[in-house]
Amino acid sequence: MLRRIWLTVLFAVLLTGCSSTPAVPTATPGIPGVKPVSPPVQVENFTLTGMNGSPAHLKDFEGKSVLMVFGYTHCPDICPVTLARFKQIKQLLGADADKVQFIFVSVDGNRDTPERLTEYLGLFDKDFFGLTGSEDEARAVITLFDGVFTIKDAEGLRKDYLVEHTASSFLMDAEGRWVRTYEYNTDPNIVATDMLKVISSPSATSSS
Amino acid sequence: MRSRLMLLVVVCFVGMALAFSSVVADDGLYVRVAHLSPMSPQVDVFVNGSKVFEALDYRAVSEYVSVPAAALQVVVVPAGGEIADSVTEVPLDIDLAAEHGFFTLAAIGILEDGTFDIILLPQDGAMMDMDMGMGMDMNAPMMPEKASITVDTISISGAYARATTDMPMGNMGGMAEATPEGGMAMGGMAEATPEGGMAMGGMSMNMNDVSAAYMHIENTADQPDVLLSATTDVSDDAQIHQTTVDASGVAKMEHMEGGIEIPAQGSIDLAPGGYHIMMMNLKRPLAMGETIHLTLSFQSGVTISFDVPVMPIGM
Q1: How would you write B47-101 as a 3-class SS string?
Q2: What is the pLDDT of residue A29?
Q3: Is the Cβ pair A184, B273 closer than 8 Å?
Q4: CATH code (residue B291)
Q5: Inter-chain contact A160–B280, Cβ cutoff 8 Å?
């Protein structure tokens, strides 16, 4: 386990070292793309609809850390990238992946039925969980993370409308506290390494 | 190679853990096996005398394993068997006909009625199921077979489209052509997997109807050019878009109605999270290993029509 962490850290360091991505200027020192939530925020227990069509509550996942992202299945560019990265993160977590529930929350309940979510997430990983709900329900949840979304269908006429949405991912610890925000496209190695800290040492979350 | 009894398609490999304990080189040869032969047992697969894939079940797809040469002799045996237990009369000779790349062997047909065969699918676009746990960056351009083309002053490289299904469905069509009996085999699969979600052609698969194409475009002219429009055979609704993620983390998409300017002697990248050719309402699922036809029109009058490979959704 320790060895895995060290390996991961090593790779993260190596990858960061040779990454050609321009460094993101950050006001505060820290890991680029990783924003600790300090102090952690206890997320209220919300309810949406799960992939089986039944109500699903945040509390259902208590005991596991939750990595959550908002998106929609008709998303042509951003969401597939994020979910592919979730898949890589899960692989990087190795055995510790069992301690994490990956969740994709739809901001497009009109089109994203539980069935469609199941098909879509199955493209990436059968263990990813999808939640959907009405526009108001989704908005209430994304607001908990200071996120937003805008359905670009002012006239309500288009079938193939796009949705602008917060693309960051949010990590909650096993007690349901929001402890990290990972910016879109943060290197999966960095995210996985940081998540291992949260997963393996609960005390780190409160001290961060 | 078309010998009648090949065994299930399985190709799994052996020692994959071993093979992947080191960083995978772009220039290696990798093979995996897909067991798509219904009513066949769990199998082991020997490649060139070594057991490479073990205990592959029907519908299982193995990891990629590294192979030293393009000429493969494949023997499929019931799980736990030896080479002598081969389900086919003779070993199957398969020539990858390449010096590097990722390939999938598919076991198709049915043993009992003599339609069993192992076929080589078109070269894979990418490593799908490889254990990425060793810190490999999936963004690294690992697939040399992305499309490149030059017409007059425009050079395109690294072009690909994202798959919308996790099964090599286009290849399944190809299989049916390659072995007329394949169609029956697929019907058999449908029966075998009634729970299959999207029962496309009887296969259980996941899919989506939105995709995007990405590439690098270079303008060698002494004046700027503009990528004005894109059309494709798989969608009537292809648009040039730009994704931006603002400081607050919100992703927005903009339809580039005026196109994208390419500087004189300069280039632009169409890449995830930036410019891309968005394709909505796809007429068919895009499967890894297929190509789509793309036509790009530039202000300079250059028009480029070319085939673009479909890469896995997971990359």
Answers
A1: ECCEEEEEEECCCCECCCEEECCCEEEEEEEECCCCHHHCCCCCCEEEECCCCCE
A2: 54
A3: yes
A4: 2.60.40.1890
A5: yes
